[in-house]
Amino acid sequence: MALVKKQRGRVTYYTREGNSFFSDLVVEELANGDLKIHFCGVAAGAQVGGQDPGKEIPAIFDYWSACLKEAGICNSLAEVDLLEVHAFGAAPNSPSPIADPEGYASERRRLREAYAAAYSSYWAAKMPDNGLPSRFTVYVEDLPDGKASFELSATGLYQKSLRMK
């Protein structure tokens, strides 16, 4: 589905057709012409890799990269400086926190560590010239969407002056 563009003053919303819940990108034009970009929190299920951050994180970052290109903002996510990233991984489906509290706690730790490793390896491979976000949070919690394996959001800055050289 195509991105639908809606502009209100200095803010432009890019939303997928049929999505009445959130925008994929919300872009604020700053006074100097740079763009502050808010990337949507995306819930992905089993089709992406259900609780496999090594598959999920590249998929969503590549999706954001495609959205930026489709919106005509830039060619890839590597052209944007990510200022902060918030990741919410779904609590483990097993083992049961009641039947196996130690196993459940261990699985939560594994998920947190796997998300952190997936982010750092993506940045190293696809965004090596970029700095790291000032805030990077990973929560492993119950999510409102029972089919979701993670929700992700980020804020970035597209600095036009860096692209004019």
What's the CATH C level of the domain at 44-156? Alpha Beta
Across the major sheet, the strand order is 1-2-3-4-7-5-6
Biggest sheet features: 7 strands, mixed
pLDDT under 50 segments (min length 5)? Answer: none
Termini separation: 34 Å
Mean pLDDT: 84
What overall geometry do the principal axes of the alpha carbons give? Answer: globular
Q: Radius of gyration in whole Å, from Cα?
A: 17 Å
- The secondary-structure element order is EEEEHEHEEH
State which percent range the strand residues make up: 25-35%
Helical residues, percent = 25-40%
Q: What is the CATH topology assignment of the domain at 44-156? A: 60s Ribosomal Protein L30, Chain: A
Based on secondary structure, the structural category is alpha+beta
- Helix count, DSSP H or I runs of 4 or more residues: 3
CATH architecture designation of the domain at 44-156: 2-Layer Sandwich
Secondary structure: number of strands: 7
Would you kindly provide a written description of the structure presented here, covering whatever features stand out?
This protein has 165 residues and is of the alpha+beta class. It has helices at 53-70, 101-126, 160-163, and strands spanning 3-8, 11-16, 25-29, 35-39, 81-90, 135-141, 150-158. The chain has a seven-stranded mixed sheet with strand order 1-2-3-4-7-5-6, covered by helices on one side. Strand 3 (25-29) and strand 4 (35-39) form a beta hairpin. Helix 1 packs across helix 2 (101-126). The longest helix has 26 residues, at 101-126. The radius of gyration is 17 Å and the shape is globular. The model has no long low-confidence stretch (mean pLDDT 84).
